[in-house]
């Protein structure tokens, strides 16, 4: 009752009316998945605002960087709103379209430990490496550009719908999913922590550099390859392997070679597969390795197979075939990895 | 000591308003203004018996049938980038007919024939809006020597004001109204089928005394809705917003309990107030209105000066979501109401405390026997805040700006009125105004704005038959 009386008196004297209200920041929960048990440190999560201006990709884009699971997003300045790219659209309803920008959520390795995000070239001039980035079409946060102008164009019902998206908070940040041109709004109660997957590939950094969904990633390094380097034991005639199919062929003293790494690896950035083959006389050890590289927004993974040929009657001491590496019974040539074998 | 005070209070309550038109049942038009009054779709016999209607051609047509027609043509010139309102080259024939086959029963028809814009092409947008009203009015029996009277009207309620107008003021509604009256006491029930939204009904029960100058009210704003936010639900659902579990806050309505009162300490002054509490909320939400009016004549000058204060506490309004009220029909006679209205305040009510101060002045000055000068203004200062609520929204309302914040709107009308025939009310008006009725292509399409607010020069001609 007292409060009512106070309000009434305020109303009558027409004072103490709030006329200015600032846009509120938003928080985003991120969780870092590390399915490949990669070891990198120190890792820092961050929000990056991308603009065509290279300078913005240096120090400026880092709006927030915390090692914790909550990122705080501050509203963009009007200057930055004019420069972010790409600006995208999402339908609020069939009459109204919101212009939004999706900042990138990343995890980077603060290699120089300077607590600044300064990525390595070509993205920046530093040494920090980006090892995780929000997936292109997954649910992520988006900033509505020119929120006040937008709200002033909406009906009360549409503004009500907008505030249901923000939980009743005057903030430009909402959640969307989908790819550009087909973005869809996501209800606030469906938002969980945004998953970032730690990678050892250069794809996250290339994605940050090239733009959301603009990186072409192909090849997984596991298929049979003609990119072969053959090492033939001196006890064998090199012609058993070397020829048109394998021009890169060398006779070597196998027993005195260091044993190759044989542990199987399959991560986003690298692959190592091994397979042994035999024709009854000759044994072949195939060690196929691949590393993903990126250039000009293209990130292939091209495998290279190193094939060791040994006389089945006198294999070197480190020879793993039949022990650590099982034989694969295949009709393919000895130097081709048969992907049908386990 | 209290006896003289009580007598004085009773005396002021019993004062008749200077412009009151006696005999119109449930008259919803404002009596304290210099705005014109339109005919009502009931009690036509009584209305036409008024001395100011003596020139009506058909008023004495028959003891059983009477009629009148207000004909108006008008044209506009846009004074701001050529902008015109919907009614910018129009005619309106507003015809009223009433049959009284027996003394206790009236059958009323209001037929509106009009074309809002000659620009649309010959008869392209011509429209007809009929409204029918059956009015039963009869004495039942005597109590203490005075008759207990029954009135019942349906479905056209014409312009409705509940109480002093805190909830609803001069809104054209359909439904029914019925009352029992004994001396100056009345128990009235009113039901309107569509008030401010497509999905609402309004029911109001009023117990009043002193010819409705003091009353208690219970009102129930019924909303049979899922609270759908946006019309294109399918689209929104596809994009994830509008699935029913997020926007469907099924709301059955809002209940109000209130009181109103009005006194006239002198015949030219009225003080009125109303308080309403939304009692289905805890804590209850309140709204209040105070209004005072002066209506006087100084020789050739007639003046009305009024002031209104309104306060609507956050979540007082009947909707549990921000949904813009809408209204039909959009016709020029609705310019005869002030912009200050709950209609403009209920949209934001869910999240904001709102209060407003309004100063309204109308003046008419007789320059010559044939020529009058007129000037009207309404200055409305409106504030909205959500202090202390925990909400932190910023909302923009069409024509009224940003909330929280303070907004000021100013409506005016100045011009000349000529009455070529001194003894007849027919007239020509040339006015500059920034208050014109906002309308879609068809006047019966829902409109969320009541008025357009840009300057136009208007020339109108009116014949009252």
Task: Lay out the secondary structure.
The complex is a heterodimer of chains A (342) and B (465).
Chain A: H1 2-13, E1 26-33, E2 43-48, E3 62-66, E4 70-73, H2 78-83, E5 88-91, E6 97-101, E7 104-109, E8 129-133, E9 140-144, H3 147-153, H4 156-166, E10 173-177, E11 184-185, E12 194-197, H5 203-210, E13 216-218, E14 228-233, E15 249-252, E16 265-266, E17 270-278, E18 282-292, E19 298-311
Parallel strand pairs in A: 1-12, 13-19, 14-15, 14-19
Antiparallel strand pairs in A: 1-4, 2-3, 2-7, 5-6, 6-9, 7-8, 9-10, 10-11, 16-17, 17-18, 18-19
Chain B: H1 2-13, H2 44-49, E1 65-78, E2 89-102, E3 105-115, E4 127-143, E5 146-160, E6 171-182, E7 185-192, E8 200-209, E9 214-225, H3 233-239, H4 244-247, E10 251-263, E11 269-278, E12 285-298, E13 301-312, E14 353-366, E15 371-385, E16 395-397, E17 401-403, E18 405-418, E19 427-433, E20 436-437, E21 451-452, E22 456-464
Antiparallel strand pairs in B: 1-2, 1-22, 2-3, 3-4, 4-5, 5-6, 6-7, 7-8, 8-9, 9-10, 10-11, 11-12, 12-13, 13-14, 14-15, 15-18, 16-17, 18-19, 19-22, 20-21
